[in-house]
Amino acid sequence: xxxxxxxxxxxxxxxxxxxxxxxxxxxxxxxxxxxxxxxxxxxxxxxxxxxxxxxxxxxxxxxxxxxxxxxxxxxxx
Length: 77
Description:
This protein is mainly alpha-helical and 77 residues long. Helix content is 68%, strand content 0%. It has helices spanning 3-10, 16-28, 35-45, 49-56, 65-76. Helix 3 (35-45) crosses helix 5 (65-76).
């Protein structure tokens, strides 16, 4: 399984809203990320579904600046 396949698998969530946003980001933007941003995206995927939804909906912000940068890319995807 390739790294991209693993990322796609981790984008499958229990909430349809997250599936749609995360998969759109992977399809449109993931190929342009550098290694640090890919690591930050992986960190973002470690959040539980409700916390991740809160982050994407701007109800919360992560402390890590790199994760925050990738999160902004996800929000705009």
